[in-house]
Amino acid sequence: MKSLSIKIGVFLIIFFCIAYASSAMDKGRPYYEKKGYVLWGINTEEKVIALTFDDGPHSVYTPQILDLLEEYDAKATFFVIGERALTYPDLILQIGYGGHEIANHTYTHPYKITPEELKEELKKTNEIIYDITGTYPLYYRPVGGTYNDRIINTAVQNGYKVVMWSWHQDTEDWKTPGVKKIVSRVVSGAKPGDIVLFHDAGGDRSQTVKALEEILPELKKQGYKFVTVSELLEINNLSIKK
């Protein structure tokens, strides 16, 4: 009888350890996509692609990128850093006037962050963007693309949809890999519904600008339309309101 009790006790300990471990594990992409919490791209046959830019605005590179986008009738989404938006409010307005979308990329761009800190960072950036443009951003992108359940839940509970990028469309332009590599990555990998990751600040982004000079006309020639994240979502009737 004592032996049976010990076995039952050991079984219960193992059971609860497994249950705790399972509950503590972060949920993966299929779960978040099904819930509609996180976006990596959409499934569509329509030749649309969303260009996104992180870490700006920048006094030199952002205006150059905006000029190129205007030249090719392209719309994009800019995931801006709050403290940079505060420094360059005129550029935030210029982004909006160009018909582009402004989204939240935290206030100070921290790579490690608690849910409480994230909530405050999102709020500060939110208010700065609202004070400049009169509208609140709908989307948030985690710094470095790093996320877990707590980060996702914090963002969702505060009214955001989390926007990542298509993994095959990470230009890695922050590494300054060379214009040819950036162009090749985007053009050769382009698929309808893709979200492409660029950076318009955080370092020397001259390669990004040069690459866009080739990417924009080439993809337009292939029949692609450059849309904002909101326009991409509308294709699948996934738009959100805030």
Could you list some keywords that capture this structure?
242 residues; alpha/beta; TIM Barrel
How is this structure best summarized?
With 242 residues, the chain is α/β, with parallel strands linked by helices. It contains ten helices and eight strands.
Structural class from helices and strands? alpha/beta
Q: Average the pLDDT over all residues and give the rounded result.
A: 90
**CATH architecture verdict of the largest domain:** Alpha-Beta Barrel
Separation, N- and C-terminal Cα atoms: 62 Å
Rg over alpha carbons? 21 Å
Q: List low-pLDDT spans.
A: 6-24
Q: What helical percentage do the residues reach?
A: 40-55%
CATH homologous superfamily (4th level) name of the largest domain: Glycoside hydrolase/deacetylase
Top-tier CATH class of the largest domain: Alpha Beta
Would you tell me which CATH topology of the largest domain applies?
TIM Barrel
Number of domains: 2
Percent strand: 5-15%
The helix/strand series, from N terminus to C terminus, equals HHEEHEHHEHEHEHEHEH
Total helical segments = 10
Shape: globular
Number of DSSP-assigned strands: 8
Main sheet attributes: strand count, strand direction, barrel closure: 5 strands, parallel
